[in-house]
Design goal:
Elements lengths: L2 E5 L2 E4 L4 E8 L2 E12 L6 E6 L5 E3 L7 E6 L4 E6 L8 E11 L5 E4 L3 E6 L1
Parallel strand pairs: 2-11
Antiparallel strand pairs: 1-3, 3-8, 4-5, 4-9, 5-6, 7-8, 9-10, 9-11
């Protein structure tokens, strides 16, 4: 009964900022790695950023220096702070988490996606 729910997407002008949230709920023992992906129309889904249970981070080249991934383990929530947004950042953003639950030693879960639209 583990679920991931994303929020914080919306419309913003180029140069603006948005903060995405990914809240996990259910029978969670621990959350291991968390990541954000995005998929633009006509393109494949791509990894944007990831963070390990120990706090190590990794970013795709197009977002380095502009996006920051973080997590709040007490709230079972991950975040993606997006600054200096560009029109090419427009996409549906998906949260992914590897979670240990009562059912599985570790399983991968996806959120439903949240739309981010950046205008010129």
């Amino acid at each position: 009964q583990v679920q991931l729910v994303e929020s914080g997407g919306g419309w913003v002008q180029a140069g603006g900022s948005l903060r995405l949230s990914c809240a996990a709920s259910g029978s969670i023992f621990s959350i291991n790695a968390m990541a954000w992906y995005r998929q633009a129309p006509g393109k494949e889904r791509e990894l944007v950023a990831q963070i390990s249970s120990g706090g190590n981070t990794n970013y795709a080249d197009p977002v380095k220096g502009r996006f920051t991934i973080s997590r709040d383990n007490a709230r079972n929530t991950g975040y993606l702070q997006m600054n200096s947004l560009k029109p090419e950042d427009t996409a549906v953003y998906y949260c992914n988490a590897k979670i240990r639950s009562w059912r599985f030693v570790e399983a991968s879960y996806w959120g439903q996606g949240t739309q981010v639209s950046v205008s010129s």
